[in-house]
Amino acid sequence: MKVTIIGTGYVGLVTGVSLSEMGHEVVCVGRNKEKIGEINDGKSPFFEPGLDELIKKNIEKKLLRASNDLAACVKDSQVIIIAVGTPTVDNKIDLTEIKTATAQVGKLLSSNSLYQVVVVKSTVVPGTTESVVLPILEEESGKKAGEFGVSMTPEFLREGNAVEDALNPDRIVIGAYDEKTGKIVKELYKKAECPILITNLQTAELIKYAANSFFATLISYSNEIAKIAEKVGSIDIVDVWEGVHLDLRLSPMVHGKRISPGFLGYLFSGCGYGGSCFPKDTKALLHFAKDIGVNPQLLQSVVDINASQPERMIGLLKSEYSSLENKKIAVLGLTFKPNTDDIRESPALTLIKSLQKEKAVVVAHDPQAYKKTVPEALKALGIELVSSVANAIKNADALLLVTSWDEYRHIQPQMFKDLMKKPLIIDGRRIYDKKKLNEAGVLYKGIGYKGMNYAEL
Ligand code: NAD
User: Fold this and answer.
1) Is 28 among the catalytic positions?
2) What's the rounded mean pLDDT across residues 217-241?
3) Is the dihedral of CA 367, 371, 373, 374 positive or negative?
4) What's the 276 CA to ligand 1 centre distance in angstroms?
5) Mean pLDDT confidence for 28-40
6) How many angstroms separate the alpha carbon of residue 157 from the centre of ligand 1?
7) What is the number of the ligand 1 atom nearest to the C-alpha of 86?
8) Ligand 1 atom at shortest distance from the alpha carbon of 100
């Protein structure tokens, strides 16, 4: 099938790659000529493991390309996928990009006799496809729904694992306006070896929010229990979760071996979730629920708990220092999770702003966040960004670990002891072995473990 995808971001480009891998002829349409050039040269404009190789391979096979000529691309595409941003602005979903892209597509549908299906892949609150996208398409095209197809097919990829997720999806959810649309979108995914669920448009939209909110809820629940552990004082939350995870209902035995299902990875305490999905989607669903007269108490707590997590790192730091003024604080990790260069809504940004309010001097390191270009959000912070861990922690009064990059896991305790002015680690992801650090003379505290005082070391 010929497919046009609007958007060359994480979802648009990864979807483009996976559909071209399935043998479809895909064009990803973007607005930025430089990015389009990069993609056509076989390179991803952002960091995602394994993506460059697949872009290159499919460009060479002439199954994938990027363009800024939407009209030419839409003309003979049977499927047009909208994968533009849907940010949360003032706690509410902002549909500006969706409306613009939809209007552009609608205009192009009118001059075409081919039956075409418009697929919304962006995450949108229930009702959006039917009550916002569809009317714009009808108005701009002068056609009635049925003369073209409309689908909402949410995306479940995880940044950092996006290629694997897109090539081997766990499920495909197809929200379809009518049967004909459902059949065509199902045909698009006929090579996928996973369950395909066909629903109405609103159900597909809510499935995406329900899935993301579920994982966000596990994280905030873990963090609430961690708060209790810290207050009690003699508990390490890591031991608590080990005991909880051993429940056979959570980690069952399969063929005599205990398995650890993926969702358990969210039942751990840390400095909170970030990224381009969980924060914005939980807030958008919360606002949407209130708007339609539902009082989403649990969701409200999930959002509130998450907002307070970075501050809890500061609390642990301040249990050692009465004032942070002129203290050099090293922040390790700026991306919202490892294996991505995405810093959107990363807890690191909130944390750094709080440190600056306390007049601390922040020096940060991340292996990817500013490797290619320094994002505006980082420039705005005006902090020192260094190219090695050693430069970040040298003479530091404390280290805050925010992202669990592999390279941070392997730092030897002696390096902290040798380089830091005061070897104090506040572990926001609980990746370090506190015993080994303490033995090396490093003071260790973390979310869910308030540690000891220097005098006790
Ligand atoms: P993104 O910001 O990385 O990419 C969106 C791209 O669309 C941008 O490059 C932007 O320039 C482009 N764009 C906007 N309007 C356009 C237009 N009219 N013509 C051409 N290009 C246009 O966003 P993303 O992370 O890819 O997310 C896209 C959607 O998918 C969002 O709704 C998001 O919630 C959802 N989603 C994201 C992820 C994720 O992990 N990033 C996962 C699942 C779902």
Assistant:
1) no
2) 96
3) positive
4) 9
5) 97
6) 12
7) 32
8) 18
Task: Tell me how far the alpha carbon of residue 94 lies from the centroid of ligand 1, in angstroms.
Answer: 12
pLDDT given at position 451: 85
Ligand 1: residue of 8, 84, 125 to mutate (most ligand atoms within 8 A of CB) is 84
Q: Whose CA is nearest to atom 25 of ligand 1?
A: 10
pTM across the whole model: 0.95
pLDDT at 302: 98
CA of 265 to the centre of ligand 1 (A): 26
User: Within 6 Å (CB) of ligand 1, which residues are found?
Assistant: 6-12, 29-31, 83-86, 97, 100-101, 104, 122-123, 155, 157, 159, 276-277
Q: What was the pLDDT predicted at 166?
A: 86
Q: Residue 113's pLDDT is what?
A: 80
